[in-house]
Structure formats: structure tokens, C-alpha cells
Write a structure and sequence with these properties.
Helix content is 36%, strand content 13%. The chain has 380 residues and is of the alpha/beta class. The strands form four sheets. A seven-stranded mixed beta sheet has the order 1-9-8-5-4-2-3. Strands 12-13-14 form a three-stranded antiparallel beta sheet. Strands 6-7 form a two-stranded antiparallel ribbon. The structure holds pyridoxal-5'-phosphate.
């Protein structure tokens, strides 16, 4: 059952893409009786490592869990401070809170919605124990110039690459650049398992720590087949990636080139369609290196105009969205509120256009026409 391209894809802001063989792979995993962590999960981990060009990948239950366990493995806990952009999905911040640490919110570059190395450097304090760059839209965030300074102060980097599976930083895939990198495989991400996530560890010790954390702190010796006992060695969560999910991910990974090409060419089609549109600027994902996760337009006139366009386009059946309401203004994170002028401005401008691999160029043309029409008819 391959997804049909009926040209109604623009009604969805984002949705998973089925290649077809996922159904058989899932049935096979069901029939095997090994539904939790198992050989299929481990094969998926090896295939991810090969794809990314890294020695090891640890699969976990979700992207949020990958961030949480990545921070724990880096020794982050109560009272620590983690530098993070406010402009991200709230999962990034909740993963920090789950460790007992608190966020130090920073601004982003309005052109990319990503942090710059300078913004990170300016935010470091004596309590900073980690930095969490968010690879918004699939764009790599290069903190190489800070490497020495961060290492010297014992500050870990845990990348939120939930948007960026498959993207490149220079000649390497994101994940292969030396930082702990976290991916999400939730339904709308570049690669999906239904639900799932993965962490690319920096060291063998970190890989071991995350594997222990994801299985309730239990370690099993190699002799587990003959030795019925096991040890609970540390704190842990139940956060493994079930085989049923890994089976879907393995098919998705095998067909990833299709998704990679589709996302790039769809993003470029939007860029062509929207070029020269007055008062509308696309957030730049660096499409030549990224596998774009989304296509976000900035409506420069601000929130009233953006909200009117949002309603008009929704009424026309176009699945626009707003990603994200900034976290530093959320009630849950009020204790760490601080003024972030660029974030507050772009938060009132962003409009996510329908973006997923089953879109057609016709859908994009229709979306762009509807936006042009709405811009002419919506009062400023
Ligand atoms: C999706 C997402 C996450 C969380 O991933 P889940 O797999 O849904 O838990 C974290 N950060 C960002 C930026 C995301 O988009």
C-alpha cells in the first residue's frame, strides 16, 4: 500500500509518509513475538550508525527521552543550568526540567531561527553545565568555534536534532560531528518509527550509560542466557524502543533517499513560488545541506496580519500552522523568563506552510496562490 498522491496533501501541515513495506515489516515483528527491545531494535541501531557514519547509536522511546537521557548521561542534574533557545518545541525544555536542571533561555537569529555560536557564548555563566542547540527546520548548528571554551569549562553539548535527521554539517551527517546528538522518530519527523528516538553518543561510556538508563538501570551480563539473575545498577527509566517501532524505522531508513530528495525539492519549489512576495520571507534552512523538516514563512507585518492570514488559509483548506509559541513566555517556565527581543518578534511572524513528502508541486502552487490571494485581500 503505497501512499497515493491525490493532490490534497496541502490540507495537512505535516504527516507521516508510508513507503509501503512498513505493513509487512510490522506484521513480521508481531509474528516474531519479540515486541519490546530485541534483535530488530539492535539491527535498527546498527543501520542508523552505518547511515550516519558513526560507531554507535542508541535507540530510545522518543526524541524527548533521547534528550533527557543524553543530559543525564552528561551528568546534568538538580541546580544545573542548560543554555537552550526559547524558540523550540517545549519537549526540549521539559527534557531539561526532567533532570532537575533549569533552562537558560537564549535568542535566535531571525533569518534561520537557530542559535549562533556568539549567542551561546554570551549566555554562559558559572552554573552552565550544558548547551542544547536546536537544529530548527533541519539546519545544522555549528558550535566548533566554541569547542575549546566549552571543553575547558566542562560544558556538554547535547544537540536537539529532532528536525535534522539526514542533514549535513559540512561533509558529515548531523550526528557525526562529535557532539551527543538526539533524533526524534515521531510521526511527522524526517524519519519515523511511529514513535521513537535515538541518541548518538560521544563515547563508549556515554553509550553504556544511556543503555542502562533506558532499561530501568538493569544491566545483564553476556551470560544472561544461562544466568537467570540481573543487577539494577543505577537510576533508570523504561525508555527502550520497541521492536514493533524499530521495524517501521528500518523500512523508513531503507527508503530515506526518496524522502530526502522530496523534502529538498519541495522546499526549493516553495522558495521559487514565494520569491518576490512582498512582506514574506522564508526561514532559511540551508537547503543544499539540510533535509528540510518544515517550510516556515515570516509575515513581516506581525501577529495581527499573520493570524488573519492563518485563519483565511485554514478556511481555504490549507494546513498552515504556527511553530512554536516561545517557551520563555509559557507559564510552566515562568521562573526563567527573560526578555528575548528577536524571539518575541519572530514568534508573531512565523507561519508554517504545509510540508511533508506526499505534497506535490501542484499542492505547493495551490498553497502559494492562496497565500498571494490572502495577502491581497487581508487588511494589514
Ligand atoms: C519532535 C521534537 C522533539 C521531541 O521528540 P518526540 O519524539 O516527539 O519526543 C524535541 N524537540 C523538537 C525540536 C522536536 O520537534
Amino acid at each position: 500500500m503505497t501512499q497515493s498522491l491525490t493532490g490534497t496533501g496541502a490540507a495537512h501541515n505535516a504527516r507521516p509518509y508510508l513507503h509501503g513495506p512498513e505493513q509487512d515489516a510490522l506484521c513480521e515483528a508481531l509474528a516474531s513475538g519479540q515486541w519490546a527491545h530485541g534483535p530488530v531494535t539492535e539491527r535498527f541501531e546498527q543501520e542508523l550508525a552505518t547511515f550516519l557514519g558513526v560507531p554507535d547509536v542508541v535507540a530510545v522511546a522518543s526524541g524527548t527521552t533521547a534528550l533527557h537521557l543524553g543530559l543525564l548521561a552528561a551528568g546534568i542534574g538538580e541546580g544545573d543550568e542548560v543554555v537552550v533557545p526559547s524558540f523550540t518545541f517545549c519537549a526540549s525544555i521539559q527534557a531539561i526540567r526532567a533532570t532537575g536542571a533549569h533552562p537558560r533561555f537564549i535568542d535566535v537569529d531571525p533569518a534561520t531561527l537557530c542559535v549562533t555560536a556568539q549567542q551561546v557564548a554570551d549566555a554562559l555563566t558559572p552554573r552552565t553545565r550544558a548547551v542544547m542547540p536546536v537544529l530548527f527546520g533541519g539546519r545544522a548548528v555549528d558550535l566548533t568555534v566554541l569547542r575549546g571554551a566549552l571543553d575547558e569549562r566542562g560544558i556538554a553539548v547535547v544537540e536537539d536534532a529532532a528536525h535534522a535527521f539526514g542533514s549535513y554539517q559540512g561533509l558529515r551527517r548531523v550526528g557525526a560531528t562529535g557532539d551527543a546528538t538526539c533524533f526524534s522518530f515521531d510521526p511527522i519527523k524526517n524519519l519515523t518509527c511511529g514513535e521513537g528516538g535515538a541518541l548518538v553518543p560521544c563515547t563508549k561510556a556515554e553509550a553504556q550509560a544511556v543503555r542502562r538508563l533506558r532499561t530501568l538501570g538493569i544491566t545483564r551480563p553476556e551470560s544472561a542466557r544461562t544466568d537467570p539473575s540481573y543487577q539494577v545498577e543505577s537510576f533508570g527509566l523504561r525508555a527502550h524502543l520497541p521492536s514493533l517501532h524499530a521495524a517501521i524505522g528500518r523500512v523508513q531508513l531503507r527508503h530515506f533517499a526518496t524522502v530526502e530528495n522530496a523534502r529538498r525539492s519541495l522546499w526549493r519549489a516553495y522558495r521559487t513560488e514565494l520569491s518576490g512576495l512582498d512582506g514574506v520571507v522564508l526561514v532559511d534552512v540551508d537547503v543544499d545541506h539540510a533535509v528540510p523538516f518544515n517550510c516556515v514563512a515570516r509575515i513581516l507585518d506581525g501577529p495581527e496580519r499573520r493570524d488573519r492570514l492563518f485563519r483565511t488559509l485554514r478556511e481555504a483548506g490549507i494546513g498552515v500552522g504556527v511553530h512554536y509559541p516561545p517557551n520563555h513566555l509559557q507559564p510552566a517556565f515562568a521562573p526563567w523568563r527573560c526578555p528575548l527581543p528577536a524571539t518575541e518578534q519572530v514568534a508573531g511572524q512565523v507561519l508554517s506552510l504545509p510540508f511533508h513528502p506526499a505534497l506535490t508541486e501542484e499542492d505547493i502552487h495551490r498553497t502559494a496562490s492562496a497565500l498571494r490571494h490572502a495577502l491581497r485581500t487581508c487588511p494589514t
